[in-house]
Amino acid sequence: MRRPSRSFASALLSTCVGIAVVGCGSSYAPTESVAGDEAFSAAPEAVQETAPPDAPDADGAGNVAEDVADVPEAMPQLVKTAVLDLEVESVSETLDAIATLTRQQQGDVTGLNESVPEDGSLHTAWVELRVPQANLDATLAELEELGTLRDQRITAEDVSNQLVDFEARLNNLRQTETMLLDIMDRAGEMADVLRVAQEVSQVRQSIEQLDAQLASLRSRVAFSTVTINLQSFSATAAEGRPVTEELRDTWVASTRSLGDLTVSLLKLLTWLAVYSPYLFLLFVAPWLLWRKLRINESVTPATHSGDSGDSA
After folding, report:
1. Are 151 and 85 in contact (CB under 8 A)?
2. Starting from the edge strand earliest in sequence, which strands make up the sheet with 148-158, in order?
3. What is the pLDDT of residues 141-178, one digit of tens each?
4. 260 or 51, which is more confident?
5. Banded pLDDT at 287 (limits 50, 70, 90)
6. Which domains are delineated in the chain?
7. Bridge partners of residue 200, in order along the sequence
8. pTM metric for this prediction
9. Is 227 a residue whose pLDDT tops 80?
10. 3-state SS of the chain?
11. pLDDT tens digits for 103-126?
12. Is it the case that residue 204 has pLDDT exceeding 50?
């Protein structure tokens, strides 16, 4: 009696896994149209009997075509992103205005990077925010009024097929999970229960992964991402600085340069002192040897000339 139950559970398990694989791989199979064609071909006489005898076929076909044409098409699911480059008078005030505008449009600021130089000549910032897609156009229009628009880029990606594919795969996986749980309840052997439990765990993991991907994709469709690059030049830098400030900065820069040069020379002397033995062996010792050889060469001819005079 154990073998039939084990083979029955194994067969049901293989069937469920096969259904999950086939369902995930072919989520767009036109099964309903095939079933409809078979039903229509199986009962042609019933269709002819129920049809009015005097009804014109051409008009009926025209009405059907009109009904099909009246069916509204599904709206495309778009992921929209926008990038704006603005030149403003005050970056700090513009950041506050962007934060207020984002709250009014029911959005959130997701990123901020501000760069404030010491001299105040150039102030830049980078802001990223997410707003509902329905409020994207209004948000962009209000952002353009905050400064001078230098560049604007808007992109849209159609993810309708991805959403349909994720939903179909999730439905098939949930059906497979239900059948596997039913098999687990009816399985009597411990080995069969463990095998089914392992398959249920794998299917549940796939369901959670697809569910997270689907939620992320739906969030990207519902909320559009807007990136704003801000730039501001200070008025003091454009008008010029006083002469006293220029001289003071020059004096500070020159004294700082002198100090850096002094420190560099001291470091160089320290390095030379540390490596002096190697420098002596590489440069001084060969020079001393060369000089000694030159002296010996000059002394030798003089000695020979003195000896020749004495002999004469």
Report:
1. yes
2. 108-115, 122-132, 223-233, 78-87, 148-158
3. 999 999 999 999 999 999 999 999 999 999 999 999 99
4. 260
5. confident
6. 78-159+221-236 (3.30.70)
7. none
8. 0.52
9. yes
10. CHHHHHHHHHHHHHHHHHHHHHHHHCCCCCHHHHHHHHHHHHCHHHHHHHCCCCCCHHHHHHHHHHHHHHCCCCCCCEEEEEEEEEECCCHHHHHHHHHHHHHHCCCEEEEEEEECCCCCCEEEEEEEEEEEHHHHHHHHHHHHCCCEEEEEEEEEEECHHHHHHHHHHHHHHHHHHHHHHHHHHHCCCHHHHHHHHHHHHHHHHHHHHHHHHHHHHHHHHHEEEEEEEEEEECHHHHHCCCHHHHHHHHHHHHHHHHHHHHHHHHHHHHHHHHCHHHHHHHHHHHHHHHHHHHHHHHHHHHHHHHHHHHHC
11. 999 999 999 998 887 766 688 999
12. yes
pLDDT of residue 235: 46
For residue 63, give the amino acid letter: N
Give how far the C-alpha of residue 226 lies from the chain's centroid of Cα atoms, to the nearest Å.
15
The Cα–Cα gap between 265 and 229 comes to 45
